[in-house]
Structure formats: C-alpha cells, structure tokens
Fold this protein.
Amino acid sequence: MLSIIQEPGLTYWLLLSTVLFSIGLYGFFTRTNAIGILISVELMLNAAAISFVSFNNFAVTGDLDGQIMTMFIIAVAAAEVVIGMAIFIQIFSKQRHLNVTKMNELSR
Amino acid sequence: MYNIETLFIYLLSIVSVLSAVLVVTQRRIIRSVSALMMVLLVTAGMYVILNAEFLTGVQVLVYIGGIVILIIFAIMLTGAGKTNDDEVDTHKKLLAFAVSFLFLLCSTYAIVNTPIKTVDTGANSSVRALGLKLLDYSGTGHVLAFEVISLLLLAVLIGAIVVARKTEEAKNA
C-alpha cells in the first residue's frame, strides 16, 4: 500500500510553492494592519524562494543560479523589512495607529 | 518501497501549509508572527531536502534570527500586540479568497501543463562553489548583482537611521 507514496518531483514542489504564495496573497488582501501586510509579503517571498531552489535542484545541471537568486531574495527581504519597520514606527508616532484603511494622507 | 525522506517531505509540506493558513487567519499580529516563524523554519528543512544546505543556515540566521525578531520589535513598539487587527467585511474576504483561489487555479494549470525536462543534477552546492559563483565575473557569475546588493544594504542602513530618528517637531513637543 505504501508503494503509492513516491518521491515528489519538481511539479510537487512548484505546487507547494504556489499554494503558499496564494495563502500569502489572501493575507495581503485581508489584513488592515500594516505589519500584517508585511508579514504576508514575507510569506510570498518565501514561496518564491522555494520555487527557485526546487528549480535549481531538479532542472539545472551542475549550476547554482537558483540558490544564488534565493540568497538575493533573502537579502532584499531583509532590506525591505528594515525600511518598512522604520516607516511604520514613524507613522505610529505621528498617527497612533497602523491601520492602512485610515492612512490617507502623507503628512499633517 | 518507501523511504523516510518522502514521508518527511509530506510532513514538512503539511506543517508549512497549516502554519501559513494560521499566519493569514490569526487576528492577533503576534500570533501570526509565531506562525510565520514556523513556516520559515519548515522551509529551512525543505532546503536541506533540496540539497541547499548553506541556504538552510542563511534562512535560519537572516529570516528567523533577523527579520522575525525585527517584526516582533516593531509590534512591541507600536502596541499592535495588545490590540487585534480590525475584522474586515465578509464580502471583502470572499473577494480576496476568490482572487487568490483564481491565481492558484491558473498557476496550477500552468505548472501541470508545462513540460519541464528534469535532469539529474550533479551540482556541487558547497559553500566554496556558491562563493566562487557569486564572485565570478566571467559572464555566468553574479558579481554585479552582488555589488548592487551590497550598495542596497548600505542605502538601507543609512535610510533606516534617517527615517526612524526623531524629527524636529517631535523633539520640541
């Protein structure tokens, strides 16, 4: 019976990455807190990184471009979070909330 | 015949998808971050299975040790841990679900119907090979992207200090 379970291939990993990306997309649309939106974006970036690494593992002979690209994704995600948090803390100190549906002006 | 690695892959996938659902459905941001940490940790496990051992270390160090901690700090500084996220309308939730489900259907269709020739990879994914690839300037390397990333990180360092420091009116108040 257990012979049905076979080693997952490239398609399996890509489908997993797509499912994670879709969940992140749903969170991106339904969150109202700015930090929550950033967390959903992190989820989507992580899903993209999984697909890069699985392509590198299954569809490339003797090269490491996918892993390098994932390293760049992680670096850019770190940069994005740092700037995002600096902006959010500044907005919070001015407006006392982080609700994106109420943020409709840049300065007061 | 089955091997333990295959079962492990399915276990990791189930845990990652369930944690991702928790990330987007928890109304408390701090719980959502805890679930995000679980997703990232499980992804590090997937990188081991996908022969990317160095990325496992980078994932744990930079993502879990850096980004998640930074998000937790921001939550504590903005008081978002105490208050719940506002509940959105049901029709907005349905619309968001429809859009993301449509995306899932479209990309699943594309993935299943695209013939991708899988090859037996003999890639040497040691740290030495990664470093040589990163600093190779012969055309197949990524030295330009590496330099641009280092410039980006410098700009972020300066930008974060400039944005987050106290403004003049805040000092006077």
Q: What stands out?
A: The two ends of chain B are 72 Å apart (CA to CA). Residues 126-173 of chain B form one domain. The mean pLDDT of chain B is 87. The CA atoms of residues 89 and 95 of chain B lie 10 Å apart.
